[in-house]
Amino acid sequence: MGTLLNPDENTMPMEIVTVPCLSDNYAFLCHEPSSGMTALVDAPEAGPILNALKERSWTLDQILITHHHDDHIDGVPRLVSETGAKVIGAAADAHRLPPLDRAVAEGDTVMVGQEAGAVIDVSGHTVGHIAFHFPGAGAVFTADSLMALGCGRLFEGTPAQMWTSLSKLAALPPETRVCSGHEYTAANARFALTIEPANSALADRADRIAAARAQGKPTVPSTLAEELATNPFLRSGLSEVKSAINMVGATDVEVFTGIRRLKDAF
What we know:
By secondary structure, the protein is an alpha/beta fold. The protein has nine helices and 15 strands.
C-alpha cells in the first residue's frame, strides 16, 4: 500500500509505502522521486521488503533503524547483503544494533534525496529509541514510542522519559502522519474506551478501526490530530482524563504512569 503525502507544491511528494511484516509489524519504504532514492524505516524481515522494492523497481539506499529490538532489525543483514544499503541508527544504541554506517543523535538530520528528516530522541520503550520526522513529507516514523492509540511498553526507560518523548511528538504539526511500528490499534482502542468512554471522537475512531480490520486493512499510519483527540497516553495532561481515573491534582507524569500501569494489566 502506498500513501502519498503532500509536501511543497513545487516538488514531487515523497511516497511512503507501508509494508506489513511478521504477524503485526510494519516497515516503511520512503521513495523520493526527484533523486530516485529510497530509504527503509526498520526491517522486521527482509522478504516482504524486497518484494515491495521489486514491485516498484526501486533500489534501497538507506536503512533507518529506530531501536534495537529483534522485530525491528532482523531483516537488516540480508537487506544489506542484497542491496548494499547504508545503515543509520542511534549512537546510543550502536552497541546492540547491526553495524552502522552512520550513528546519529537528536538534532541530527538524515537526507533521503531532497527530503530532510530530523532525528528525535524518544527514549522510553527502550533507552536510545529514536524517531525520524520528515516535515516536508508530513510524516514522523515513531516505531514503538507513539503508536496508534497507544505507546510502547516501558521495557527500559522511565515513565518520565516516555512522557517527555510523547510531549516532543505531540508538539509536531497536527496534520503529521504518524507511521508507527505495529498493528495494535484495535486492542488499544478497547483499552482507550475504558479510560474515556464518553469521548465521541474515540468512539467514532474505534468504529472505523473495527471496520478497517474486518476488511484486512491497516490502521497505520494515523494522524497526530487523531492521536491528540483519542490517545489516552497523549491526553494524560488533560483535566478530564485525570478526573476519569480519579487522579485529579496529580502531575501529568503521574497520570501517564497510572494509565501505562492500567494498560499493562489490561
